[in-house]
Specification:
This protein is mainly β and 96 residues long. The chain has one helix and ten strands; from the N terminus they run βββαβββββββ. A six-stranded antiparallel β-sheet has the order 1-9-10-5-4-6. Strands 2-3-8-7 form a four-stranded antiparallel β-sheet. The longest helix has 5 residues.
Length: 96
Amino acid sequence: MSTSTSVRPTSRGVRVWIEGKQLTEAGFTKGQPYTRTITQSYIIFALSNSGKLKVAGSPARPIIDFSAKQIEGFPLGTQLLVTYQPNLITIERVTV
C-alpha cells in the first residue's frame, strides 16, 4: 500500500510524520523498536529488536515523526511517496 505526504512546517519546526492504520498494518505499533536509514532519495524504516527508535503515539494511532535535521536535503514542501510493507516502510521523493 502507498500513500503520499510532504515535508511540512509545524510549531516544532519542519517535520515529516506518518501515522495510523497503515503503520499498524505494516507491523509498526506503539513502542515497537525500529531502525531508520536516510539517503539522498529514500528514508527507510525497518522493524528491528535492536532498533534504538520506538514508534510513538498510542495503540490506536501509532506515529513516526522526524525533524528537518534528520532529513536534510528534503526541503519544505517536498512531496513524498510512502510505501508500507510488512515490517518495512519506505519514503521516497516524488519526482515531477
